[in-house]
Amino acid sequence: MIKPKKAIISLKGYEPNLNPYLVKLDANEEKDYLSDKIVKNTVFPMNLYPDNDNTSLSIAIANKWQVSTSEVIVGNGSSEILELLVKTFVDKDEVVISFEPSFSMYKIYATINGATYIPVLPNEDFSLNVSTLLSAINEYNPKLIFLCTPNNPTGYLIPKEAIIEILDQTQAIVVVDEAYMEFSTQDTSVIDLINTFDNLIVTRTFSKAYGLASLRLGYGLANERLISLLKKVKAPYSVNAYSQIIGQNALDLESEMVRYTEASKNRRINLAKSLSDLGIQIYPSEGNFIFFKSKQNLYEDLINKGIMIRSFSGELANYYRVTVGSEEENALFINAMEAIINE
Ligand SMILES: *Cc1c(COP(=O)(O)O)cnc(C)c1O
User: Fold this and answer.
1) Is residue 179 within 6 Å of ligand 1 at its C-beta?
2) Cis ω on the peptide bond leading into residue 153 (within 30° of 0)?
3) Residues near 276 by Cβ (< 8 Å), separated by ≥ 6?
4) Which ligand 1 atom sits closest to the C-alpha of 80?
5) How many CB atoms lie within 10 A of CB 150?
6) Exposure b/e, 182-208, CB count within 10 A at least 16 = b
7) Which atom, in ligand 1's list, is nearest to the CA of 28?
8) Nearest to 293 by CA among 315, 316, 270
9) Would you say the CB of residue 213 lies under 6 angstroms from ligand 1?
10) What is 285-310 written as a DSSP string?
11) Residue-wise pLDDT tens digits, 161-203
């Protein structure tokens, strides 16, 4: 049979968890807390292609952030924007840099699109080593840099000063993925800098804090020129009409989202304490998840008890990421952990 592109032959694609479960704490999904309020009598002409410019939703996003609509691009999940950035700016064999461990899709998008992906090693505690990153930028002259803050899976924030330092030292496109910023106790967003640095783009999503992962809706914010380049490359009509309407309704309920994420932060504190009390080494998280290290392999034992969390392999064997669930889910998870540890 005909072979795929070279980059695809050895590519390990994204693998969603397919095990049966009672409690799903593996994918940082949230509760369906908005849909009964935002799914109204939603009618739209199902025979027509959706608005390619996402006009109403872009206006709502622009209002939320006090930017111009020309500084907004809406995507089929923020994932679409992340890949669009690689497609738009990175030629074959040019370099994409990120630090590790971080979101696995950065490497996958770079690889699929023929780029060379360079991972930067973290500090001992898995936090970003800014000087190592700056040296790598110097050495490899990347075209694009992905920075995830709060970082998935570790939960660390990247200090705003560090992002500014990086922006000051590179002409590369700097993508700051703020998928989890709503869960942070400190607002270190760099959205206010999109007109200070012409190479900065910030991405956000409806998949986490708004509990709307099924809609596949996210967006990017950057200066007008950068956004217009992305729009040239974007697949037409990639965001369906239904998601555009529901997303706009969701933005009308901003205070609900804030109340919800505040409660989630409290549950994160309690979950972190319960894990620590079990003698588990946890990493301080600003996301809706907690990264931790176990002395033993937990994955199969937890699956056998119906509890699904995210496991890692290679260097990160015996490291796990658990989504902050409801109080009930967290209790089921902690009880299962307790039973496994005491077995
Ligand atoms: C979940 C997540 C996203 C969001 O992806 P969508 O395509 O918007 O659902 C983006 N970046 C990171 C790091 C994530 O964990």
Assistant:
1) yes
2) yes
3) 282
4) 7
5) 25
6) bbbeeebbbbebbeebebbbbbbbbbb
7) 1
8) 316
9) yes
10) -SSSEEEEE-SS--HHHHHHTTEEEE
11) 999 999 999 999 999 999 999 999 999 999 999 999 999 999 9
Q: Is 218 in the pocket of ligand 1 (CB under 6 A)?
A: yes
The encoded tokens of residue 236 equal 């037409």
Q: Which residues of 226-241 are buried (b: 16+ CB within 10 A; e: fewer)?
A: bbebbeeebeeebbbb
Instruction: Locate the ligand 1 atom nearest the alpha carbon of residue 217 and give its number.
Output: 8
User: Residue 313, class by beta-carbon neighbours within 10 Å (0-12 exposed, 13-18 middle, 19+ buried)?
Assistant: exposed
Q: Which of 28, 74, 79, 203 to mutate to test the pocket of ligand 1 (most atoms within 8 A of CB)?
A: 79
Q: Please state the pTM of the whole predicted model.
A: 0.97
In the chain, where do the E strands start and end? Answer: 23-25, 72-76, 95-99, 116-120, 144-148, 173-177, 200-205, 217-222, 281-282, 289-293, 307-311, 319-323
